[in-house]
Amino acid sequence: MLKIATVVGARPQFIKSLLVSNEIRKTCREILIHTGQHYDHNMSVIFFEEMGIPEPDYNLGVGSGNQGAQTAQMLARIESVLIEEKPDALLVYGDTNSTLAGALAASKLHIPVAHVEAGLRSFDKKMPEEINRIVADHISDILFCPTQTAVDNLKNEGIAKGIELVGDVMYDLALRFGRIAEERSDILNKLGLQPKEYLLATIHRSANTDEVKNLKVLLETFVESGERIIFPIHPRTRKVIDDIGLNDIIDGSHIRLIDPVGYIDFLKLEKNAAKILTDSGGVQKEAFFFAVPCITLRDTTEWIETVGSGWNILVNVDKELLLNQISEFNPSGEPARLFGDGKASLYIAQRLTTL
Ligand code: UD1
Ligand code: UDP
After folding, report:
1. Whole-number Cα distances in Å, 122 to 142, 145, 299
2. How far is the CA of 183 from the centre of ligand 1 (A)?
3. Do residues 161 and 26 both lie within one domain?
4. Which of 33, 97, 212, 329 lies 20 to 30 Å from 55 when distance is taken between CA atoms?
């Protein structure tokens, strides 16, 4: 029986892995390795519990740290597991430090690497994620691309072999869990929200958190918009707000900071939001899947199709521009289906089983 090692470590990777893991486990043995990059209950365990993600075989407990130190610890610990387990292939998702460490550890041991969400580029090398994507792609053997743009990006970098256009696993998940969220989530009642009478915000990118002045402008803009904004706050962003004392900006305003929520509640919040304000990659796409106007708080995106379709707009940290778009950005029509047919997870697992 084929043995596939999967490396996950950050919130979006737990979510992305579920359907692929379910498919893989029908015919292969999967070893699930959690690096421990994300570790708070609402950033990790909540997803395993509510979505039924298989229990990790290994939790490497790496935790937080500077880019180099965190990646190095993951690399060393993943390598030990791979030497012990000797998998036939290693599967990584996305563009986090866990992705980079997993791909690097396996490729040095001559274990074939499969990368889900290969080929994405923001063309901004100041983002740690862009470095992770480029390196992971260039050492991967199978490159599972969600979009034609991703395929083209790889070809432009001279990657000719191993490219598979399969669609986006997050679309598969949004189709399935979008329905479940409608049925099961009580989050609107809990927060006293009416559909389409609030905006939903998330912020966690280094450009919007480590650059404290940017975070300050974003919070001031949210307050000045006068909109009711629900803001499930990433621990990185919470830390900066608390450390720098930015709570004053939002005290007494319509901005409601809440702890990060589980996937099912988050999908419900997304589907019912009037607009979404975010710097997240995954949230931009989910807004698109659910036809919710998205204002992306960055000057680049990997998901350019969402911008091309008119449902996503990039607005850098600029108060006037942002206030204008918060009130004026109202796309119409149906977003096109650009992220596959809802079976990307199946295609990925099928390809892996033919190794
Ligand atoms: C990481 C990924 C990013 C992804 C995001 C998903 C990298 C370089 N970045 O960013 O691509 O979009 O995950 O959410 O891999 N923290 C906690 N508890 C946790 C996790 C983090 O308190 O459970 C705090 C720590 O202070 C930590 C900071 O958040 O230093 C940043 O965490 P880290 O995993 O390094 O980066 P993210 O911003 O989460
Ligand atoms: N998400 C969630 N709870 C939250 C915020 C986000 O479940 O409080 C989900 C969201 O639905 C999406 C994923 O987390 O599937 C996005 O993760 P994140 O924004 O942390 O990372 P990125 O996609 O930018 O890498």
Report:
1. 21, 15, 9
2. 30
3. yes
4. 97
What are 180-229's pLDDT values in tens digits?
A: 999 999 999 999 999 999 999 999 999 999 999 999 999 999 999 999 99
65 lines ligand 1 (CB under 6 A): no
Cα–Cα distance for residue pair 138/42, rounded to 1 Å: 33
Residue with tokens 């599972």: 144
- Whole-angstrom distance, CA of residue 275 vs CA of residue 122: 23
- pTM exceeding the 0.90 threshold for the entire prediction: yes
| Statement to judge: residues 118 and 193 lie in one domain | no
Q: Is the CB of 43 under 6 A from ligand 1?
A: yes
- Total number of domains in the chain: 2
Q: Is 37 a pocket residue for ligand 1 (Cβ < 6 Å)? A: yes
Same domain, 153 and 183: no
| Domain CATH number, residue 186 | 3.40.50.2000
173 domain-assigned: no
Ligand nearest to the CA of 62: 1
Does the Cβ of 230 fall within 6 Å of ligand 1?
A: no
User: Could you tell me how far CA 286 lies from the centroid of its own chain?
Assistant: 10
Supply the residue whose CA is at minimum distance from atom 6 of ligand 2: 266
pLDDT 10s digits, 282-330: 999 999 999 999 999 999 999 999 999 999 999 999 999 999 999 999 9
The verdict on 195 and 132 lying in the same domain is no
Amino acid at 228: R
Is residue 8 domain-shared with residue 156, that is, in the same domain?
yes
| Spatial distance between the Cα atoms of 215 and 318, rounded to a whole number of angstroms | 11
